[in-house]
Amino acid sequence: MATTSIPPSASSNPSWFTPKRLLVIFCVINLINYVDRGAIASNGVNGSQRICEKGGTCSSGSGIQGDFNLNNFEDGVISSAFMVGLLLASPIFASLAHRVNPFRLIGVGLTVWTIAVVGCGISFNFWSIAVCRMLVGVGEASFISLAAPFIDDHAPVDQKTAWLGIFYMCIPSGVALGYVYGGLVGTYMSWRFAFWGEALLMLPFAILGFVMKPLQMKGFSTSGLSNAFGSTENDASEVKGISNGSHSLSDNYKPSSSKDESAINAQLSRFLKDMKVLLGDKVYVVNVLGYIAYNFVIGAYSYWGPKAGYNIYHMNNADIVFGGVTIVCGIVGTLAGGFVLDLMTATISNAFKLLSVATFFGAIFCFVAFCFKSLYGFLAFFAIGELLVFATQGPVNYVCLHTVKPSIRPLSMAMSTVSIHIFGDVPSSPLVGVVQDYLNDWRKTSLILTSIFFLASAIWFIGIFLHSVDRFNEDSEHSVIGSGASSSIPLLKEDTIETTEYMADL
Asked: Which residues cross the membrane (predicted)?
């Protein structure tokens, strides 16, 4: 049998960070990240505008919007400002994953996130909080593009979409918890304390990113990843002429400045090449286009939902009501979507079928919900609609991960995340604010917004008929693990895995 390189987690004693524990850690980080999104959208933190009556008497307003005297457009910009950091940092983190330990990258990003959230709490005007929200996007960029590939690598073969569903379940449940958390903190303390509390929760995970010794990610070699930001040992090896692979690195040794320039050029060349592959893949593009339309609605729902509910149905406790409905429907719907796709047999074609059908019927229920004048009728139909639309989270990310080679999955996830934000929820929040300022009718605004779900369903419907290839087990030039190796190891077991047993499984 041919010699196969063994990932660190498979030889002798595996890392304490087993797949199950890794999944839990990623879920908690993702949850905190989206608690922040929900908190800033809550009435307790976001607050309300200053209102001036015809007689000249003005109310002071409340929360961020009242303290900084923001109109609805500026308020929407605050919710979308994180996209600047996400857009700039995502491709950088995804590219660096080839050379730097991914968990060190996550540690750096989460540290920036923690500092930025503290900054939100001490902000003093529109621009100061907008800049801090931009830096929050840097933290998300380091995490979101690397977590999903790790989960997909080490999940059991017949439960991959379910595991992804568990991870992405933290998005709606995190936003919902954020509504409740922000509402309570903003009511009984100050909106600033909500941000400081989030920073305390995230700090241990930022530190953890620097000390974790993680499992190997499929499609990447261990070379050069042992140190946080490069390897002085590798540089020394090059000088001494120690061979790496099929050739000696001493043959290519160059002075430091020239070598750094060559490394940057090589990194840029690789990035452009990988981007060309992604943009040339029709399946990937159609999947992301549908995801953009879907996220346009979800993003606006998450930000404006409590305020729309308060104005349409006069819900004094809109944060808690929307939070409660979203957390239940988000958890059940997201998990159900993952399990259903696994039961259908997880393929790219089946994923598109589930995406299109669930979104179409979810759109119908959500649209009809906003037509009800009764609060109870609205809640019943909206809950069913949310159950259906949240069933897409596992399948849509399954397509992103399996339609590309393992070596470009971080970039695939990064560009998917950037795209759904820059074309989806980033413009949707301020645009909905503009529409509402023009119509001054939250019911009509909500119906217009909800109709975009039908566009997402139509785009994903096209994906059913595209020729698709699952590339999860496709070898790349950087892969050190045999094709399908991560699927054949019983990674759920926490006992010692001997090298001979690993090789036998291969």
From this structure: 77-98, 105-127, 163-181, 193-212, 283-304, 320-344, 351-370, 376-401, 447-466
